[in-house]
Q: What sequence folds into this?
């Protein structure tokens, strides 16, 4: 025997379904808009840095990266896996300031993958939305030691370090400092599947007195269980 559901039950179900579809559509539209805003901001920031602009004040609510959270800077790329569950619960999250001041170290470019990004003097939550950042124990560009640079592996093609996996040996990484000095590194090694717990072993390379660079991002794209490392050697001036 077939019984009809009361209209009083059917109507709320239909409304709920429509709301779910509407929310999903809004979220799908938000991502490309955010990515476009990020790209426009990055292009403008690069231009400002190239003429000597060292600081940038940004709204911490703008251009978020999926899965990030306001916790200790630099932990994003050193966690075991990049998921919302990785980060601290709401009551433990640090308070969010009204504005954040970012300090530029220069720019980083890799012509083989059409990459040009601001390079910040730290790898905090907000700074990594608008470029790449120097790890806290990093050497400075051009110095002996290891210049360690962190960046997000975005899902959108060409966004931030999305194309870092296409970089090959003998490609060149160019760092232009805020003072206008340029340092070029030649890619010598690529490690495509490093466990986060082993990263410090790789960061230590450069203690031999040589000038090196290590770019770090998550892999696989959108999963982030491992890290991709691109290592280069400073070319003679």
A:
């Amino acid at each position: 025997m077939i019984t009809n559901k009361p209209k009083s039950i059917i109507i709320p179900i239909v409304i709920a379904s429509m709301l779910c579809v509407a929310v999903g559509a809004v979220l799908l539209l938000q991502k490309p808009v955010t990515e476009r805003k990020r790209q426009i901001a990055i292009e403008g920031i690069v231009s400002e840095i190239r003429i000597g602009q060292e600081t940038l004040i940004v709204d911490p609510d703008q251009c978020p990266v999926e899965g990030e959270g306001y916790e200790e800077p630099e932990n994003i790329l050193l966690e075991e896996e990049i998921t919302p569950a990785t980060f601290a619960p709401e009551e433990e999250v640090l308070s969010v300031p009204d504005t954040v001041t970012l300090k530029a170290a220069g720019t980083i470019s890799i012509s083989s993958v059409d990459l040009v990004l601001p390079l910040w003097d730290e790898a905090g939550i907000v700074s990594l939305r608008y470029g790449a950042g120097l790890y806290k124990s990093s050497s400075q560009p051009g110095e002996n030691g290891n210049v360690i640079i962190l960046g997000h592996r975005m899902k959108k093609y060409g966004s931030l370090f999305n194309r870092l996996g296409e970089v090959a040996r003998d490609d060149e990484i160019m760092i232009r400092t805020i003072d206008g000095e340029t340092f070029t590194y030649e890619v010598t090694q690529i490690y495509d599947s490093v466990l986060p717990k082993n990263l410090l072993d790789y960061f230590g390379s450069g203690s031999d007195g040589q000038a090196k660079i290590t770019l770090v991002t998550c892999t696989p794209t959108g999963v982030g269980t491992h890290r991709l490392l691109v290592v280069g050697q400073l070319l003679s001036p």
